[in-house]
Automatic annotation (TrEMBL), chains A, B:
Residues 215-231 have a biased composition (Low complexity). This is TetR family transcriptional regulator. Residues 212-231 are annotated as: Disordered. Keywords: DNA-binding, Transcription, Transcription regulation. Residues 40-59 bind DNA. Residues 17-77 form the HTH tetR-type domain. Transmembrane segments: none annotated. InterPro entries: DNA-bd_HTH_TetR-type_CS (IPR023772), Homeodomain-like_sf (IPR009057), HTH-type_TetR-like_transc_reg (IPR050109), HTH_TetR (IPR001647), MftR_C (IPR041347).
Length: 231, 231
DNA sequence: AGGCTAATGTCAGCCGCTGACAATTGACAA
DNA sequence: TTGTCAATTGTCAGCGGCTGACATTAGCCT
């Protein structure tokens, strides 16, 4: 008899999981080496030795596979936000949620693909027009969810009070910007994006002041690797 | 002999212009009646009685034709911003630019397509995932341009001082939000979106205050047609 | 072992899009 | 006017993403 302990379920289930993982990895590997556009679905399928049709049974589109990991990461942020203590102000809570999420997200990614592969994929997303477009749409879908979450925390009605949506919109705008800058920079590490995030979020308040000429110059933003990453 | 006065240039040029206009209108008409996805490029070409290949010689993609008018509108905003007096603070200048642009944009649109057709197209864009994605990407491309413009106004270096990009990001976030809400609402008029814009921009400052519970409740946001549109 | 069902492969076909080449049609000069 | 040149268009073939339909394979369960 077989003493195999089904690590999660039946053989069928495990096989499916392995196929999905293999497709995901092969896709990201090809995307990051040849580029997204220059990679055909047939290539991905061939690399895993399944038919093209099978690829589309696991991922609804070529785009979807590119965002599989990203989707997980976003889930982490939402979870982190949900766990912020109620006394924190909206922007404070969002800020803390991102920063704390960046600290624990490495583990979660590693279970699916090498972290370094994910980082490279993110850069591909940011630099491929078609993917960037989808990325942005996904982002605003998340914005809506977060706005509702914030409204709930504050005991407000998202549709009656504009402040939750406005705050989240402003916050997400900054987040996107850091993502972009990070993608363009050279330091493709989790620490780098975390530091970048922290530094730019600190400017959200000051940037909205009416008069920029009166005050003293703000701290210079970190261009790329900010030596020791902010503690 | 023919006394035809070439309204703009040679016959060839006029013919090209007419074909382009016809394709544009036919496309938007079909998009707004059947939906974007359910409209094929062949249908558009057939409606104008040209080959599919010809369509692609005028528009690089099916998406591009959907954004033709939008592109013009964006140009207007940038022009308006360029003309704002230098003493206005960044957010003030952007705010005034949008509002003044909305006032003159009607004319410009009318020269190409019926305004009402443009408005319906905007709603199609906002409600079609594929188009929404592209719309967002185009938006952030414009953000980058505006950030540089603002930085120039203020005599700053976009890459050294984070405030221009941050302010523009926050501003654009709010703008996108109003566009979305407008698309969902029922009043598909230029006045409606102008009023919506004005109302929400007024909340940009207050929304970023740290404590939302201390202060008194803010004015209720206009859900849709806000009666008389703000002067 | 054998039946059941889920997963996969195969095939045909639509749609967006492109390159190549031929046919058409303005533009312009002789 | 006519003929030449160049721009515009049509036609055709083909690639890549994606889907429905149907046959085939392979895990599951009695």
């Amino acid at each position: 008899m077989t003493v195999e302990q089904p690590s999660s379920a039946g053989l069928r289930e495990r096989k499916k999981q392995r196929t999905r993982d293999a497709l995901l990895r092969a896709a990201l590997e090809l995307f990051t080496t040849q580029g997204y556009e220059r990679t055909t679905v047939d290539e991905i399928a061939d690399a895993v030795d399944v038919s093209q049709r099978t690829f589309f049974r696991y991922f609804a589109s070529k785009e979807e596979v590119a965002f599989a990991v990203q989707q997980m990461v976003e889930g982490h942020f939402v979870d982190a936000l949900r766990q912020r203590p109620g006394h924190e102000a909206p922007l404070e809570a969002m800020r803390n949620a991102v920063l704390s999420a960046w600290d624990t997200i490495g583990e979660a990614i590693r279970e699916v693909v090498p972290v370094e592969l994910y980082l490279r994929t993110f850069q591909v997303i940011e630099s491929t027009p078609a993917l960037l477009a989808v990325h942005l749409r996904r982002s605003i879908e998340m914005e809506e969810n977060i706005a509702r979450l914030i409204a709930e925390r504050e005991g407000l009605d998202v549709d009656a009070d504009p402040r939750p949506r406005v705050a989240v919109a402003a916050f997400s705008g900054v987040m996107r910007m850091t993502g972009q800058l990070w993608g363009r920079g050279e330091d493709a590490s989790l620490e780098a994006i975390r530091a970048l995030t922290e530094a730019y979020l600190d400017h959200l308040g000051p940037a909205l002041a009416t008069d920029w000429r009166g005050g003293e110059a703000p701290a210079r933003a970190p261009r790329r690797t900010p030596g020791a990453h902010a503690e």
